[in-house]
Request: fold
Amino acid sequence: MKLQIFVQDCAKIPKDKQCPSGTGPGWVCCLDCKNITKTRWDDPPYKINASGLQVPIGYKTIATSAVHYNGVLEYDAHSIYGFSQAIATHKALQGLEGKRPFILSRSTYVGSGKYAAHWTGDNQGTWEDLKYSISTMINFGIFGVPMVGSDICGFYPAPTEELCNRWIEVGAFYPFSRDHANYYSPRQELYQWDSVAESARNALGMRYKILPYLYTLNYEAHTTGAPIARPLFFSFPDYSECYGLSTQFLLGSSLMISPVLEQGKSQVKALFPPGSWYSMFNMTQIITSEGGQYVNLDAPLHVVNVHLYQNSILPMQQGGLISKEARMTPFTLLVTFPAGASDGRAAGKLFLDDDELQEMKLASGSATYVDFYATVSQGTVKLWSEVQESKFALDKGWKIGKVKVLGLGGSGAPSSLEVEGKPVTSASNIELSSLEQKYITNLRSWR
Reply:
């Protein structure tokens, strides 16, 4: 349910007038609105720059002198009204369905992230708002609202075809990903343009493959408060060059998104912190930097640059048209070591449950949690895991079907592979894939 009150203090339906009009635009009020109250609650001594216009505090909302149940003033309750609705709705849905609710709210307050997802409001279909969507998403993650995203392609006005291409390439990696528009705007479903549909298949196809990783990040957010989408400095706090960066972001600690945010561009200037970064769309490509550097990346219309950092183990599946279909496909572990290193370590994690339990938690028979570890030494790759509550995953028949190892020197092929202390042979059920990397650039420290 979406409830909006964009009227001033008092409103009534005019006589012999249809409301809403049915012709739009959707954000223009068709009620008669008069400002009839001027108490100290409506015009307090402390002034705020409401709407950037220095208008009264009750502008386009309920009068702040209005009284709620039990004598509570709107002045005191305004910021927590939506928060209270989210809590009540969450409790009600749990009681009615006995399942984990999904609640989406535009109105949030401190603590809202425990009960509801958030979309960032009626952002415009402009290049400027596309760029702002990243910093807004990052900020809300820090505020404790990890499931967040903007209206892909913009709420209004109608986006251009190029803008919608670029927006789905970013929005596919929002924690909350949704194409949404004003009722009176021209249709902007992703299939309305052939070019946008192609970009959507590329970007959303990758999202569905990394759903195990995204779901694990949701579990981490639930148990620790860590954001899903993060600024680069979360993983690279000693690299000051990324402190003010808001045109790229990380999913978790190691998956970096570097989108095109400007009209007419077919390249993107992306910052790469020190280390080895592997392209998710072409795993033979690697970018290495000893001290961090900006790199100009090719980004034609249907391409978004997504890179995985060294020392990572990324759990993936094969994707599908719907998430439940994707969840039943075999798992792949993507292991990344520092490029060309003779010795290295990597780690990752995976949380699995049936996604409908009221709470994300480890419990016998209803969830499984896995820590993955890998090392490489003198060409020998060792991979092992530590599993908590294995019964759920085993009962589902979920197994690792493939291991991809990136960053090995020479031809890219390991001399041997051990899984859980046992050598992998041609008769094993696990398929090993190793690729020889092509260095896009080999950069030294920032100048």
Remarks:
- DSSP finds seven helices and 26 strands in the chain.
- The longest strand covers residues 343-353.
